[in-house]
């Protein structure tokens, strides 16, 4: 269940649970229901008239929160729910995540979970909840923008996981310096700081401060000749710089923020990845859930 709209705009108490559409999901003490009971079949009749209620999480992949007057986007689920919603959220609207199943969900981006929902919402309404601006990434294919709100990472690889990914990697700095290398590997991860604790780290990359504006690329399982080494096994892309991938395979794929957004890339195609001009404002990030 996800909500986007104005808060406290009617006569309802914004801290009662009803005004945000969470009433059926909260106990009298403001606790979320257990994961097994966490299900929404219908919109609460107590929701304000200008609310946008999305009961089907799949709508987040095609939804659009560009509605005038939206003050906050609230997601209830986990990191995947917030990630999907973030693709529809511009730089001027903050997003707040509620982890509905903390026993099984990491909730890296989620500020609230069972037992702290109303307290966190109160802080959001009062403007005292910490705001963190996260860098996002833009991805272009042959000079056409595929996405400009990638939050975690992009993966370029062969469509078959058993096949070798062949490409030319070109790293360009803001000052005009260029480093280029032809590589063979299982693929290439690249993303902003928000994704550096996930796939980038698992592949051998560094964990970046969340406030960093740099992108990081990490080569997966590189093939090198005996005694050889890669010049660009991993690296950082400074603000104003970019990474270009010149595809040398017929069945390449570009996965953006997971498996749901995927684009075909073939021989001669050119992917360019750079920092997006659209940041994402996330509320309530702390050291406990990934903030700095």
In words, what does this structure look like?
The chain is mainly beta and 292 residues long. It has two domains: 2-129, no CATH class; 137-275, Sandwich (Tumour Suppressor Smad4), CATH 2.60.200. Helix content is 8%, strand content 35%. The protein has helices spanning 79-86, 117-126, 199-202; strands spanning 2-5, 52-54, 72-77, 95-99, 110-113, 131-134, 137-141, 144-150, 154-158, 165-172, 178-185, 187-192, 215-220, 234-237, 242-247, 252-256, 261-265, 270-275, 280-283. It has a six-stranded antiparallel beta sheet with strand order 8-7-18-15-10-11, with no helix packed on it. Helix 1 links the parallel strand 3 and strand 4 (95-99). The protein is elongated, with a radius of gyration of 21 Å. The protein starts with a strand and ends in a 9-residue tail after the last strand.
Summarize the structure.
The protein has 292 residues and is mainly β.
What is the secondary structure topology, with strand pairs?
Elements: E1 2-5, E2 52-54, E3 72-77, H1 79-86, E4 95-99, E5 110-113, H2 117-126, E6 131-134, E7 137-141, E8 144-150, E9 154-158, E10 165-172, E11 178-185, E12 187-192, H3 199-202, E13 215-220, E14 234-237, E15 242-247, E16 252-256, E17 261-265, E18 270-275, E19 280-283
Parallel strand pairs: 3-4, 4-5
Antiparallel strand pairs: 1-2, 1-3, 6-19, 7-8, 7-18, 9-12, 9-16, 10-11, 10-15, 12-13, 13-14, 15-18, 16-17
């Amino acid at each position: 269940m996800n909500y986007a709209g104005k808060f406290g705009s009617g006569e309802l108490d914004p801290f009662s649970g009803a005004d945000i559409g969470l009433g059926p999901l909260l106990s009298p003490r403001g606790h979320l229901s257990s994961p097994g009971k966490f299900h929404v079949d219908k919109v609460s009749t107590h929701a304000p008239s200008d609310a946008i209620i999305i009961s089907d999480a799949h709508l987040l992949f095609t939804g659009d929160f560009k509605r005038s007057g939206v003050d906050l986007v609230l997601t209830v689920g986990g990191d995947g729910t917030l990630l999907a919603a973030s693709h529809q959220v511009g730089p001027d609207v903050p997003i707040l995540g509620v982890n509905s199943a903390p026993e099984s969900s990491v909730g890296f981006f989620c500020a609230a979970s069972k037992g702290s929902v109303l307290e966190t919402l109160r802080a959001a309404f009062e403007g005292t909840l910490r705001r963190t601006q996260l860098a996002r990434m833009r991805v272009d294919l042959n000079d056409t923008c595929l996405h400009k709100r990638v939050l975690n990472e992009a993966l370029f690889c062969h469509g078959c996981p058993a096949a070798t990914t062949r490409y030319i990697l070109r790293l360009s700095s803001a000052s005009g310096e260029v480093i280029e290398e032809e590589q063979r590997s299982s693929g290439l991860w690249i993303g902003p700081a928000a994704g550096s604790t996930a796939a980038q780290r698992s592949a051998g990359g560094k964990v970046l401060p969340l406030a960093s504006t740099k992108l990081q690329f990490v080569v997966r399982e590189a093939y090198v000749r005996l005694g050889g080494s890669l010049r660009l096994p991993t690296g950082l892309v400074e603000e104003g710089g970019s990474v270009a991938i010149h595809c040398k395979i017929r069945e390449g794929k570009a996965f953006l923020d997971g498996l749901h957004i995927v684009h075909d890339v073939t021989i001669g195609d050119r992917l360019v990845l750079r920092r997006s001009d659209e940041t994402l404002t996330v509320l309530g990030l702390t050291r406990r859930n990934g903030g700095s």
